[in-house]
C-alpha cells in the first residue's frame, strides 16, 4: 500500500464515518493482506469491529475466502462498511466482486474502493485493470449500489513521492439502497436491458 492510498481511505473514514464512532459497525477490508501497511489502524477501534478478508492467509487476514466471487464465509446483509484498496486491478471479474459486496452490505451500508488508473504492471498473481470514475460508477450500478462519489487523483501531489503518485488512484464511495429503492433499480435496469435487446 502506498501512502496516498492510506490517506484517501482516511479521508473516506473522516467524511462518512466520523459521526458514527459510537456505533458498533462491522467493517470488512477486502484484499486486506498487509503489504507495506494496511487500513486496520483507521478502522480497528471499539465499538467498530474490523475484519481483514483475503483469498490467502497472511498478516492482517482474519477471514480467508474459499471462492473469490461467492463469499460463503460472509453472511448476506451483515456488513455496515466494506473497504478495498489496491485489489480491484488484481480481480479478474471485479463486477462479480461488486455484486458480492452489495450482497454482504446491509441496506444503507457503504463501500469505498480505491484502485489505480495508471502505473506499472504488477502481477499478484495477475494485473488486469486500471479504473476510471465512470468504470467504478458502472460497476456500482451493475451491483445495485448507488454511487455517492467517484473521482481520480489525476495530478501529482507534492506531499507524495513518484512511487505513490504514479498510480493516480480512482476512488468510489457507494451505498446499498434500502430494499424498496433496490427493487425499483432492478426493475428499471431490467426494462433498459429489454429495450436494448430489441
Report what the structure shows.
- The chain has 198 residues and is an alpha/beta fold.
- The chain has a single domain (3-197), classed as Vaccinia Virus protein VP39 (Rossmann fold, 3-Layer(aba) Sandwich), CATH 3.40.50.150.
- 32% of the residues lie in helices and 23% in strands.
- The chain is built from 6 helices and 7 strands, in the order H-E-H-E-E-E-H-E-H-E-H-E-H.
- The protein has helices spanning 3-17, 40-43, 94-104, 133-143, 162-165, 179-197; strands at residues 26-30, 49-54, 63-64, 79-85, 105-116, 146-152, 169-175.
- It has a 7-stranded mixed sheet, sandwiched between helices.
- Strand 1 (26-30), helix 2 (40-43) and strand 2 form a beta-alpha-beta unit.
- The mean pLDDT is 93.
Give the key terms:
198 residues; 32% helix; alpha/beta; seven-stranded mixed sheet; Rossmann fold; globular
Sequence-ordered SSE layout with sheet pairings:
Elements: H1 3-17, E1 26-30, H2 40-43, E2 49-54, E3 63-64, E4 79-85, H3 94-104, E5 105-116, H4 133-143, E6 146-152, H5 162-165, E7 169-175, H6 179-197
Query: Regarding quaternary structure, how should these chains be classified?
Result: single chain
CATH superfamily: Vaccinia Virus protein VP39
Q: What is the residue-averaged pLDDT?
A: 93
Strands of the largest sheet, in order across it? 3-2-1-4-5-7-6
Structural class: alpha/beta
State the total count of DSSP E strands: 7
User: What's the gyration radius in Å?
Assistant: 17 Å
Top-tier CATH class? Alpha Beta
> Could you say what the CATH topology is called?
Rossmann fold
Q: What's the helix-strand series?
A: HEHEEEHEHEHEH
Summed up, the helix count is 6
CATH architecture, please? 3-Layer(aba) Sandwich
- Poorly predicted ranges (pLDDT <50, ≥5 residues)? none
The largest sheet is:
7 strands, mixed
How far do the termini sit from each other?
Answer: 46 Å
Strand content: 15-25%
* Percent range of helical residues: 25-40%
Amino acid at each position: 500500500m502506498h501512502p496516498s492510498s492510506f490517506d484517501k481511505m482516511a479521508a473516506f473514514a473522516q467524511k462518512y464515518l466520523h459521526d458514527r464512532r459510537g456505533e458498533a459497525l462491522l467493517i470488512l477490508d477486502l484484499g486486506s493482506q498487509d503489504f507495506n501497511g494496511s487500513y486496520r489502524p483507521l478502522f480497528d477501534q471499539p465499538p467498530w469491529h474490523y475484519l481483514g478478508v483475503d483469498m490467502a492467509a497472511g498478516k492482517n487476514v482474519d477471514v480467508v475466502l474459499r471462492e473469490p466471487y461467492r463469499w460463503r464465509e460472509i453472511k448476506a446483509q451483515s456488513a455496515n462498511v466494506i473497504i478495498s484498496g489496491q485489489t480491484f486491478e488484481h480481480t479478474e471479474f471485479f463486477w462479480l466482486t461488486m455484486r458480492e459486496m452489495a450482497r454482504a452490505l446491509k441496506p444503507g451500508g457503504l463501500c469505498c474502493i480505491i484502485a489505480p488508473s495508471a502505473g506499472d504492471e504488477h502481477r499478484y498473481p495477475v494485473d488486469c485493470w486500471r479504473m476510471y470514475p465512470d468504470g467504478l460508477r458502472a460497476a456500482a450500478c451493475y451491483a445495485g449500489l448507488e454511487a455517492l462519489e467517484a473521482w481520480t487523483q489525476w495530478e501529482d501531489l507534492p506531499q507524495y513521492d513518484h512511487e505513490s503518485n504514479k498510480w493516480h488512484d480512482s476512488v468510489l464511495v457507494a451505498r446499498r439502497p434500502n430494499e424498496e429503492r433496490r427493487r425499483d433499480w432492478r426493475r428499471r435496469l431490467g426494462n433498459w436491458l429489454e429495450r436494448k435487446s430489441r
